[in-house]
């Protein structure tokens, strides 16, 4: 993985020192809250329902075992012994004290981490496929480009005060695991017949109160032109995006109001006028970066070791975990082990300090010391030998990390909701827990197959409910929490925004409603291979509405 | 702003240094205990409380102050009338601390 050079190291240290000074001045009263607020937000410090909250950047979701151990240390020393992994592949601490934050930033800087650009109207952490570099279906590894964009977008002077926040995601695989269509810019890395790399660029996707699927405006943009092309998009947005209305300030509104074709034309006009040579990455920089992402020293292994077959045959629970949580690796004899942070009735995305340390240890022992965070709030060991899977699973299972549910109905994206979030209109986590309880049997889950439920505690949609096969949005109706259900959303390469089924449900009734929808699906499907989403696409909403509202 | 809220009101904010949720008691002191909060029962009282709460802001003790509606339950305890404030006072409604989870 990428390791900071002196430049990165210095700027992170300088920023931590500046923030220490700013906090001191705030605590002494030299700065007012109005003056301090933007400064703390630039360093990822929010004020939430119960406490401050710190969001730490994990560039494209990749971190080292040493970084993970430091995150665990911070959780234990300054927080309440746990952290929350987010849909932006970052980690949040829910209970830091302002007086401790300068020390926390120093501790983060010790391992090359920070909280810069995890808030504010700037380019946020670039996200990517959690299986980048190892997925069997990958065209090419997107991480060198993600890292290039990280460097380019960090403290970019022109793009530090955009009309609104700006999120970029990149994938190099056929299957989109990074939800690129719901980003301000989504990038798909492609390879043509002659082996050249290029980028299809999508703009104007987003969730929130006005969900939109991004439109393709750039076709096979060359590697050389990537940064200038991004600059042209950002410049068009920076100049023309609305600053008068927060709810209309995202690029998706500009693209929508202007029309994708007109926006594309504007970008191309700006692009044509750029002095591109000055804006490209320096000669050799991409090659330098790419070296950090070379394959680790894989061994030559047999494709399917006998020990794995035997362990699966002997142990049903392990077999279930392999079937659900282990994915194909591009290298023979290796596998991608996905660690679910969605235990039955647990808190989606949370991990205790001990669990973080265990995962760090597993990474050191079995996966070249590297860990990934997925946007679906799980962790990944990306390079494990198939012959080590059983040992890894035993350790995970003994520590509450062996839940076999990746991609299943209980693997829900869930935002913090009203249990933590100052903007929330309803709770999300207890709803996830009730659903998790209802579908806790792994037999039932495998019968149901792939089904993505996503839950948000307000219209801001941090829980990606619009992209859920079943989406749940928590609202406030005269002081009572109630939940609106959408169907047919999807965050993958066939991205779609879910449609509202009908009147909402009370907190007590949501899990039963989901059960009804699932039962209906099982009746409707033509074979076990037809997924929930396939059925919704085939039959539409009506049969599901009938099932849900028949007695109403 | 105060006049728009219907009912008796208490001022809340968060401690600048720690971020903890606190409530204003008499003389503009701030406490984590809602029961010690002073209640404004008329628009005039709420306005006076707000002036006092803003003093806490200018003295850099609290941030993000605002009033919320409370009622008294049968036992005479002050309780908020909205779930948001209830969760804010009681903490997350879920078992979230790993040590507590292990003990379950
Ligand atoms: S969706 Fe709403 S409730 Fe959930 S984290 Fe985002 S802002 Fe908070």
Structure, described:
The complex is a heterodimer of chains A (552) and B (104). Chain A has 552 residues and is of the alpha+beta class. Chain A has 4 domains: 6-109, Sulfite Reductase Hemoprotein, domain 2 (Alpha-Beta Complex); 134-291, Sulfite Reductase Hemoprotein, domain 1, CATH 3.30.413.10; 306-398, Sulfite Reductase Hemoprotein, domain 2; 416-548, Sulfite Reductase Hemoprotein, domain 1. Chain A contains 19 helices and 21 strands. In chain A, the strands form 4 sheets. In chain A, strands 16, 17, 18, 19, 20 and 21 form a 6-stranded mixed beta sheet that branches. Chain A has a 5-stranded antiparallel beta sheet with strand order 1-2-5-4-13. A 5-stranded antiparallel beta sheet of chain A has the order 3-14-15-12-11. In chain A, a hairpin with a 5-residue loop joins strand 8 and strand 9. In chain A, helix 11 crosses helix 12. The longest helix of chain A is centred in the N-terminal third of the chain and has 23 residues, at 6-28. Chain B has one domain (8-103). The longest helix of chain B has 16 residues, at 43-58. Chain B has 3 helices and 5 strands. Chain B has a 5-stranded antiparallel beta sheet with strand order 3-2-1-4-5. Classes of the chains: A alpha+beta (552), B alpha+beta (104). The complex binds iron/sulfur cluster (SF4).
């Amino acid at each position: 993985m990428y390791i900071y050079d002196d430049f990165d190291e210095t700027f992170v240290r300088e920023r931590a020192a500046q923030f220490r000074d700013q906090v001191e001045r705030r605590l002494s009263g030299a700065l007012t809250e109005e003056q301090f607020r933007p400064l703390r937000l630039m360093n990822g410090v929010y004020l939430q329902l119960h406490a401050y909250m710190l969001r730490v950047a994990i560039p494209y979701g990749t971190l080292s075992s040493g970084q993970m151990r430091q995150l665990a240390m911070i959780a234990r020393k300054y927080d309440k012994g746990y952290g929350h992994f987010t849909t932006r592949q970052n980690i949040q601490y829910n209970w830091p004290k302002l007086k401790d934050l300068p020390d926390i930033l120093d501790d983060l800087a010790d391992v090359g981490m920070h909280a810069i650009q995890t808030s504010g109207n700037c380019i946020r952490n670039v996200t990517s496929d959690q299986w980048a570099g190892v997925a069997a279906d990958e065209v090419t590894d997107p991480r060198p480009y993600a890292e290039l964009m990280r460097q380019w977008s960090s403290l970019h002077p022109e793009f530090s005060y955009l009309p609104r926040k700006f999120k970029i995601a990149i994938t190099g695989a056929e299957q989109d695991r990074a939800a690129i269509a719901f980003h301000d810019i989504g990038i798909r890395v492609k390879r043509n017949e002659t082996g050249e790399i290029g980028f299809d660029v999508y703009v104007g996707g987003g969730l929130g109160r006005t969900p939109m699927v991004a439109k393709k405006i750039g076709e096979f943009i060359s590697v050389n032109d990537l940064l200038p092309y991004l600059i042209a998009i950002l410049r068009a947005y920076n100049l023309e995006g609305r600053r008068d209305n927060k709810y209309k300030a995202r690029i998706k509104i500009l693209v929508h109001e202007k029309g994708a074709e007109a926006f594309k034309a504007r970008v191309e006009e700006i692009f044509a006028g750029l002095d591109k040579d000055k804006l490209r990455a320096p000669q050799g920089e991409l090659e330098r970066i790419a070296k950090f992402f070379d394959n680790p020293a894989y061994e030559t292994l047999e494709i399917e070791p006998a020990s794995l077959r035997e362990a699966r045959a002997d142990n049903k629970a392990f077999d279930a975990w392999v079937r659900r949580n282990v994915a194909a690796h591009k290298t023979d004899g290796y596998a991608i082990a996905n660690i679910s942070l969605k235990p039955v009735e647990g808190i989606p995305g949370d991990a205790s300090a001990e669990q973080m340390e265990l995962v760090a240890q597993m990474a050191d022992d079995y996966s070249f010391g590297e860990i990934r965070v997925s946007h679906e709030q799980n962790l990944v060991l990306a390079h494990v030998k198939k012959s080590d899977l059983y040992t890894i699973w035993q350790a995970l299972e003994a520590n509450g990390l062996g839940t076999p549910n990746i991609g299943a109905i209980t693997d829900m994206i869930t935002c913090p909701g009203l249990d933590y979030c100052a903007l929330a209109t309803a709770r999300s986590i207890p709803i996830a827990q009730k659903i998790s309880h209802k579908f806790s049997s792994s037999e039932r889950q495998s019968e149901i197959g792939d089904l993505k439920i996503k839950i948000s505690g307000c219209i801001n949609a941090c829980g990606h409910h619009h992209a859920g096969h079943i989406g749940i949005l928590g609202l406030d109706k005269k002081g009572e929490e109630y939940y609106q259900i959408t169907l047919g959303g999807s965050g993958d390469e066939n991205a779609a925004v879910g449609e509202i089924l009908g009147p909402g449900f009370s907190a007590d009734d949501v899990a039963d409603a989901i059960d009804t929808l699932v039962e209906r699906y099982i009746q409707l499907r033509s074979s076990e291979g037809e997924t929930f989403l396939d059925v919704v696409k085939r039959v539409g909403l009506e049969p599901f509405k009938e099932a849900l509202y028949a007695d109403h | 702003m105060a006049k728009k809220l219907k009912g008796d009101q208490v001022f809340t904010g968060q401690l600048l240094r720690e971020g903890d949720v606190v409530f204003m008691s008499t003389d503009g002191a701030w406490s984590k205990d809602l029961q010690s909060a002073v209640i404004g029962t008329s628009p005039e009282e709420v306005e006076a409380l707000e002036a006092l709460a803003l003093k806490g802001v200018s003295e850099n003790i609290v941030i993000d102050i605002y009033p919320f509606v409370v009622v008294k339950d049968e036992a005479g305890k002050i309780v908020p009338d909205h779930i948001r404030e209830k969760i804010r006072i009681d903490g997350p409604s879920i078992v979230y601390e790993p040590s507590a989870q292990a003990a379950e």
